[in-house]
Amino acid sequence: MHQTFYIDIDEEITSIVERIKKAQVKEIIMVVPKRALLIQSIVNLRILKKEADEVNLQLIIVTQDKLGKILIEKAGILVQPKIYKSEEEIEVVEKKAVVNLNDDYKKITETENKEKEEKNRIDNIGSRDYFNEENKSEDQFAQEWEKAKEIENNIEKKPSLPNYKDSITKISEDIQSKKTSQKINLKVEKESKNIFLKPKNKKSLAELTVNQNKKKERKKNIILKDNSETFSCPLPVNQNEKIENFFKQSNDYKKSKDNYQNYNISRKTRRLFWIFGLIGITVVLGIGAYLFIPKATVTIMAKTESKSIDSEVLGKTNIKKIDYNKEVIPARFITVNQQITKEYNSTGSKVVSNQKAQGTVIIYNEYGPKPQPLIATTRILSASGKLFRLKAGIVVPGFTKEGGKVKPGSVEAIVVADSSGEDYNISPTNFTIPGFQNSGGDKYHKFYAKSNQAMTGGGNGTKKVGTITERDIALAKKKTLKDLNKLVDSKIKKLAGEGAVVLDDAVEKDEATYRLSNSAGDIVDSFNITIQMEAKAIIIQRADLRQVVAQILSLAGDSAKKIDSHSVLLDFGKADVNFQTGTINIRFHASGKTITGIDTAKIKNDILGKSENDLEAYLSTIPNIEKVAIVYWPSFMSGRIPFQKSRVKVLLDN
Hints:
- Helix 4 (about 85-95) packs across helix 6 (about 110-125).
- By secondary structure, the chain is an alpha+beta fold.
- Helices cover about 35% and strands about 30% of the residues.
- Strands 8, 9, 22, 23, 24, 25, 26, 27 and 28 form a nine-stranded mixed sheet that branches.
- Among the domains are: about 290-305 and about 595-654, no CATH class; about 355-460, Beta Barrel (Elongation Factor Tu (Ef-tu), domain 3), CATH 2.40.30.
- The longest helix has 27 residues, at about 470-495.
């Protein structure tokens, strides 16, 4: 099933695209007059082809425009000079009669007289008189209606439709029984755009309006006569309202079309409207930018007086708030326990000849809970068969039990190789005690030793080896202690937090403890030193101290002007700290500037929209102002303070 669209000569491509998108069929025949805008541009045709393909529509254009045919074929759209299908001819009759018959009823109206009449009209597609219904009077319109009924009455005489009477009877019965289930659709293309054009005289339009009721009566029932019998096909209940609305819309459309044609605007005029419109929009945007984009920051530098004083304030760890009367502020106690390990190279050296290797081992006792003494020279044997002896006597503690598990006793001991030579400079390993081998039981396996570092010092002949000197150890302690002090101070400041005051006199550090991996004289290339320190400090908040000092400065001298706490500068003297009582007595030299009585909120309200000259004159009336600086954003929009309060900042710089 297809649908036919009739295109106006000046109809835009956007309107045509909207029509094909709303189509309910898969095939569209588009009748286009000569010199129509649609077929004058290959771009329009390609857009039309693309939109039709997207909704899967078969598109055929009917036109007699020779140049248009070439462009249509170039765009890939089917083109025909005329419409030859009889269904299209019937559709034109249906539009004139304003009634859409169903498929069976369309076949009835195929008569030779109508074929000839409609064929002549289709041949004139694109001509000036094509489908110009507005030239007909009401009587002519009624005559055509009677001709259509006459065609319907004569259809039964054709031998190709012998069962017409029965089919009409069946249709009538179905419509009467179901009413709203079967409808005779009104095909009005684009609100009868192609049917009702601009009337040439107002008289025919008036006649059409006057005889409207007669037309409604005619359209309510389609009466088909056959000799002595009459078959009536009543329309659905709501069909009468559709017909009335159709004629009302048709009359309204005629008036709007008439007004539109009377006020048709040329392309050049429309282009001028666009240009002036863009200029107007640009002007409005420029005014808006001038009013709403700029920002201004006004910084007022006030005249101030300076005061200074030498005084002291007490800080206590057992209070939470400032006591202005007693000049006491809250303090806080901090403790730090820090450890640091550093590695240093040995700088000493000595010549060794037939030296015995030595090192440290840890001896374990898993045999029993009683301690086991071992005398000097007790043998211990490495896993590789190297024999070492204890340098001094020791006692190995017995094992203990923790939660059902045995924890062996252990002790550290120095061992010396039984013979000299480099072969005894062995890596860390496990050792056994040969003396317990014949003791019976598990004693030989329950007593054992392990070394965590390699044995060193063994050699043959003359050879230089690195050794630790006393100077190496002293320098290592000094440098490591310095690094540890820095680390402790940094940790105290970090724990104190931003805005805290940590005085050197308020920090107390305990004596540092040292641990060396080797002793002076040991034959090693490097050694480690570990230092541990505990420190404590009493700190105060700088803001609390400034507030108390500002009050002290305000009360000093004869002036009653207040001091701005943010302007207070402090130079600290010696502080007395008592860690037992948690107090600190802070001595200082302080200076500060007086607060001026400048109301920035009032100034902000008063300067909105003022030029720089007016602003300068206004600020000159306010005392205690020394200087004013103005910063505009963007910088090129300067010279006037913005009108909006939110776009202006007024800052007071003391």
